[in-house]
């Protein structure tokens, strides 16, 4: 007899029916139930009934930059719900979408002599925004008389999403290419730029030389260059010199390619600039944003492009950009996004990110003394402990929870992207918890011997 719902805990019921990200359908999947979320804290309940209050070091996968139950975002959602939560975007429009487009255009990177990003396509998620950007680039080349240009140039170590075209520009070795042979586009990969902390003029010149050679060989078949500017996120938290963006802009211009910046993880202040492109003063032809766009409340992303790109595609054979999600321009999501961008526009994020960075630098420094640790690095409100070997995700997660911190390690990285509202004490707790968890699991140091029980 199958136990009734009342006889099973929520976690057991979950395991019987749900998939989780990058996880098997397993009755033994490690899970924690979230009972409440407020500010930067989550209240967790384990399967055995134990409860923990933890600082969310992940901002719910980098999106909840203003924290949970933010009164400004809550109020925006309630106001929109009192009017209407959704209408189709085909043939209709509404104030939240128009305001959001205007806000994004006003915030977007700009530079003298470069066309502005002035047209906005609202998408369901970051991965879909990348799909739209790639389709737009191919349509642009076809409308410009180059229908053979259907491939993309990118750099190793990138991650751009899990849908098919997006997977096709993710790292060809560490990504998911091998699982879908014959289905992913055959794109062109240059080496990843040298790490920012160790880059020298010589190593940058060597990278530039190889990039330019690859671009020249394949230019006739390429539609665009796509990269995550300055910081590669899920591909390994790899920070690289901002001057590499200038080189990418020059290469794209030289060969008639569009330049696409995937700012889904880096946008809205995460790296210390409003957009990572601003570190180099470079303006792309197409830019994708998402994650923090709604402050983590609702799924929404956007693709921005220049007026020339929009006009060229609109005048092309198809006469339109060939994409149109059912929930495109969802009014509820747009209203919350406007509230989130309103908080960003106040400017306090810049001081918050600088303060968080200082706390991450000092707080993670002790991790370098651990034999299991290969590197510690930070950029803006991002802190990374890189191990020599793969992280024991389950054990490190559990250890961090015992120290009052929620982290979600991957590969050989234990990292944090905390909410911008995190206090200095919160950052101290995050960094101490991360370091202690690594020590306990990968150095085999009992918590009590470290005075952290």
From TrEMBL:
EC number, as in UniProt: 2.6.1.62
Residues engaged in binding substrate: 61, 159, 291, 324, 408
Family: Belongs to the class-III pyridoxal-phosphate-dependent aminotransferase family. BioA subfamily.
N6-(pyridoxal phosphate)lysine: residues carrying this PTM: 291
Keyword S-adenosyl-L-methionine: yes
Name assigned to this protein: Adenosylmethionine-8-amino-7-oxononanoate aminotransferase
UniProt keyword list: Aminotransferase, Biotin biosynthesis, Cytoplasm, Pyridoxal phosphate, S-adenosyl-L-methionine, Transferase
Domain of life assignment: Bacteria
UniProt subcellular location: Cytoplasm
């Amino acid at each position: 007899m199958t136990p009734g719902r009342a006889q099973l805990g929520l976690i057991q019921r979950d395991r019987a029916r749900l998939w989780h990200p990058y996880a098997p359908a397993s009755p033994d999947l490690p899970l924690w139930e979230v009972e409440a979320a407020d500010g930067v804290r989550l209240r967790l309940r384990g399967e055995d009934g134990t409860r923990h209050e933890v600082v969310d070091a992940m901002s719910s996968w980098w999106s909840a930059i203003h924290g949970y139950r933010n009164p400004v975002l809550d109020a925006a959602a309630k106001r929109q719900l009192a009017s209407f939560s959704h209408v189709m975007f085909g043939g209709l429009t509404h104030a939240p979408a128009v305001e959001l487009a205007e806000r994004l255009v006003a915030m977007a990177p700009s530079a003298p002599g470069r066309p502005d990003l002035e047209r906005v396509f609202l998408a369901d998620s970051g991965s879909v925004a990348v799909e739209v950007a790639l389709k737009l680039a191919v349509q642009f080349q076809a409308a410009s008389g180059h229908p053979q240009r259907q491939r993309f140039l990118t750099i190793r170590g990138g991650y751009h999403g899990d849908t098919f075209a997006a997977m096709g520009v993710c790292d060809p070795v560490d990504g998911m290419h091998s699982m879908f042979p014959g289905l992913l586009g055959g794109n062109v990969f240059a080496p990843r730029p040298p790490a920012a902390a160790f880059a020298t003029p010589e190593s940058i010149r060597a990278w530039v030389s190889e990039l330019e050679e690859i671009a020249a060989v394949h230019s006739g078949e390429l539609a665009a260059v796509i990269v995550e500017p300055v910081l590669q996120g899920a591909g390994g938290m790899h920070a690289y010199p901002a001057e590499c963006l200038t080189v990418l802009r020059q290469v794209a211009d030289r060969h008639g390619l569009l330049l696409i910046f995937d700012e889904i993880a880096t946008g809205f202040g995460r790296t210390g600039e409003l957009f990572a492109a601003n570190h180099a003063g470079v303006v792309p032809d197409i830019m994708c944003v998402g994650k923090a766009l709604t402050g983590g409340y609702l799924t929404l992303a956007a693709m921005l492009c220049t007026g020339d790109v929009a006009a060229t595609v609109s005048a092309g054979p198809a006469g339109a950009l060939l994409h149109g999600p059912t929930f495109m321009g969802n009014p509820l999501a747009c209203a919350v996004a406007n509230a989130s961008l309103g908080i960003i526009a106040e400017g306090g994020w810049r001081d918050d990110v600088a303060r968080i960075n200082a706390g991450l630098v000092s707080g993670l420094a002790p991790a370098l003394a651990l034999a299991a640790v290969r590197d510690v690095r930070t950029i803006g409100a991002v802190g990374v402990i890189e191990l020599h070997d793969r992280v024991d995700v389950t054990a490190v997660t559990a250890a961090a929870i015992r120290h009052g911190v929620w982290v979600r390690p991957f590969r050989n990285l234990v990292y944090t992207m905390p909410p911008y509202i995190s206090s200095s004490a919160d950052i101290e707790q995050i960094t101490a918890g991360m370091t202690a968890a690594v020590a306990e699991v990968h150095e085999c140091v009992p918590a009590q011997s470290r005075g952290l029980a």
